[in-house]
Amino acid sequence: GNSVTQMEGPVTLSEEAFLTINCTYTATGYPSLFWYVQYPGEGLQLLLKATKADDKGSNKGFEATYRKETTSFHLEKGSVQVSDSAVYFCALKWANQAGTALIFGKGTTLSVSS
Amino acid sequence: EPEVTQTPSHQVTQMGQEVILRCVPISNHLYFYWYRQILGQKVEFLVSFYNNEISEKSEIFDDQFSVERPDGSNFTLKIRSTKLEDSAMYFCASSFDRELILRSSPLHFGNGTRLTVT
Predict the structure, then answer these.
(1) What gap in Å lies between CA A11 and CA B75, rounded to an integer?
(2) What residue in B sits closest to A30 (Cα-Cα)?
(3) What is the bridge-based pairing of β-strands B108-109 and B88-95?
(4) How close, in Å, is residue A114 to chain B by CA atoms?
(5) What distance in Å separates the CA atoms of residue A39 and residue B111, rounded to the nearest whole number?
(6) 8 A C-beta contact, residue A80 and residue A16
C-alpha cells in the first residue's frame, strides 16, 4: 500500500545550521508530495509541495525535490532559525483515486537552539 | 487569508458520552476531512466527505463515528459513545479539488480540538 517514511527525531540543531529531514514514500500511480509543519499548540500548515517528478517545492527558505528514481522528498534548509522549531510531516496524495486524502509520515521534531 | 476553524479547542468528556466536534471549512472548498493525532503518534486519516456523502474512510472510522454537514457551512464529527482510546487531537481539513482525480490541491487544516476522555 501507499506509505510515507520519515527519519526518526528529534533533530536538534544550533541556529544557522543546515537541516535535512529525510522522507521516502511507497505509492502506486503518481502521487503529489507535501511537507506540513506543526508549530507548538497549532494545527498543520502546508509548507511546500511538488506534484510531479523533478519538481522542487520551496517556501520560507525550505526546499524539497520530488525524486522519482529514489522515491524521496527530503526537506532541506540552508540556515535554520529558532523559529523553525516545530514538527515536520511528510505526506503524499495520489492520483487516480476519488476522494483520497493525504497520508502522513510519523513526523520529525526539530529543535533549534540559539 | 481564509482559514478552517474548529470548536471547541478542548473538550473533556466521560467515557460512554457522545461528543460532537465542529468545524467550519473554507467557504469555497468542496472536500472535507477529519484526521486525528493521538499524543506522540502520527496523524491518521479518519474520513473524507464530498457532495454530502462520505467518499472514503479508514478502518478507524467505525460505527461509533459519523460525520454530517448540517448546513452550508458546518462540518461535524460525532463520536457516539466515547472510549478512553478516543483521546486525541482531532483535525478538520478542507480542500478545493474539483475533479475526482485528486492530486495537487493541498489540504487546509484547522487548529484542532483536543478531546480528553476520562
Answers:
(1) 36
(2) B103
(3) antiparallel
(4) 25
(5) 10
(6) yes
A57 in contact with chain B, both atoms CB, cutoff 8 A: no
pLDDT (0 to 100) of residue B101: 46
Q: Which of A32-46, B9-23, B39-53, B99-113 has the lowest mean pLDDT?
A: B99-113
Mean pLDDT within B78-93: 96
As a whole number, mean pLDDT of residues B85-98 equals 89
Most B-contacting residue of A4, A42, A90, A102 (CB-CB within 10 A), to test interface = A102
Q: Which residues of B touch A95 (CB under 8 A)?
A: 101-103
CA gap B90, A45 in Å, rounded: 15
Kindly indicate the confidence band of residue B15, based on its pLDDT and cuts at 50, 70 and 90: very high
Number of H helices and number of E strands within chain A? 0, 12
Characterise A112 by phi-psi region: left (phi > 0), alpha (psi -120 to 50), beta (else): beta
In chain A, residues with a C-beta closer than 8 Å to the C-beta of B110 are 43
Check A95 against B103: CB less than 8 A apart: yes
Statement: residue A98 has pLDDT above 60: no
Please tell me if residue A70 touches chain B, with a CB cutoff of 8 Å: no
Residue A10 corresponds to which cell in the numbers above?
A: 528529534
Instruction: Give the per-residue pLDDT at B99.
Output: 52
